[in-house]
Structure formats: structure tokens, C-alpha cells
Amino acid sequence: MTEQMRQLAEEYGNVWDAKAPEGLADRIFSSDVVDHNKQPGQGPGREGIKHVIALYHTVFPDLNLTNDDVIVSGDRAVVRWTATGTHEGDQLGVPATHRAVRMTGIDIIRVENGQIVERWGEWNVRTRKSCERAWQVAGVAGSRADAGDCPGVSRAAGVVLPRCGGRRGWRSRAGTVPAPAR
Questions:
Q1: What is the 3-state secondary structure (H, E, C) of 26-38?
Q2: Is the pLDDT confidence value at 49 over 80?
Q3: Is residue 60 within 8 Å of 20, Cβ to Cβ?
Q4: What is the mean pLDDT of residues 118-126?
């Protein structure tokens, strides 16, 4: 069972890659899969997830995802991944930048009868432009990111939040939060 779970978790990561085999999403997701971290406008079930996958393939036509770690425990698996691609399409109102983007994330899946029935995910985007946009969306007063030290951006349940600060920290409406020790 553990090897089957590991294979399913690997395929879960691969389904997000632009070169994913046709029909993979239909095979690995149950029709009524629950996505606990929906994108804005995402519908329910497998069709909702397939819509989001298609959106990402449109926005990042060269999206390449690698599974960095896969951990299996019981009916759940954790996938830590890295994705790269070129931002070529509009996403959530952010016009194409034509810049390379690197994303990292950790997803948890729950499996029943050989298919994914639940999914949770957290991810970070690491480009200066996307970070500056995230600062604006999050309502943080001014970008405190230093060149080469741009903070990551966490997306949880459709909300963009600053994740960490530059060398001097970041400011919010509540005041300045110091940067983590290096």
C-alpha cells in the first residue's frame, strides 16, 4: 500500500506539470475531491481542480514541477515540490510579466480507494515583482524587500500574506516586524 501511495503522490505532483499525461487528473482525483485551499472562482470537485490546472498551464505554459520530497503516512501523503515557469498570462488580475518564476510548496493529500479525496496546499512565489505585488495586495506599507532578498509569499485559502521580511523586516499596519535572524 505504501508504494501505491507514494506513486499516487508522485503523480499528484506531476499533474501540475505542463507536460503531464492527458487524463492524469481524471485518474488520480475522485470526482468529489475536496480542495481545502481553493483558488478564487474555483468550482467544486475534480472539475474545479482541472480548471485550476488548466489555468496554471495557460499562465505558465512551460511550467515544470519536481517533487522534492514525498512522505507517506497511513491514508495521507505529503509532497514538497518546486515549480519553475515563465509568467506568460494574466493570473488573478496580475498581467503577464514574461519573467521566470520559481514557486515552492507543500501539499497534503488524503486517499481513499486509490484516488485523492482531499487536498491541502501552501506555496511560495520567489520573484521580486511578484513579491512587490503581494505586498500591495496584503496591504503592507511599502515594499521592504532588498534586492536579492525578496520575501516569500504564502497563499492560504485565497489570501496573500507576507511570509518573511528583507534584511530590515517588513512594516504592516501594526508596526514593524523584525526580519528573521540570519
A1: HHHEEEEEEECCC
A2: yes
A3: no
A4: 87
Region 27-52: mean pLDDT is: 95
DSSP 97: -
- As a whole number of angstroms, the distance between CA 85 and CA 32 comes to 29
Write the DSSP string, 39-89: PTT--SHHHHHHHHHHHHHHHSTT-EEEEEEEEEETTEEEEEEEEEEE--S
Is the pLDDT at 181 greater than 50? The verdict is no
Q: How many residues does the chain have?
A: 182
Q: What is the pLDDT of residue 95?
A: 87
Which grid cell is 34? 475536496
pLDDT value of residue 9: 96
Of 23, 27, 94, give the one whose Cα is nearest residue 60.
94
Q: Which domains does the chain have, with CATH numbers?
A: 2-125 (3.10.450.50), 126-174 (no CATH)
Residue 125 burial by Cβ neighbours in a 10 Å radius (0-12, 13-18, 19+): buried
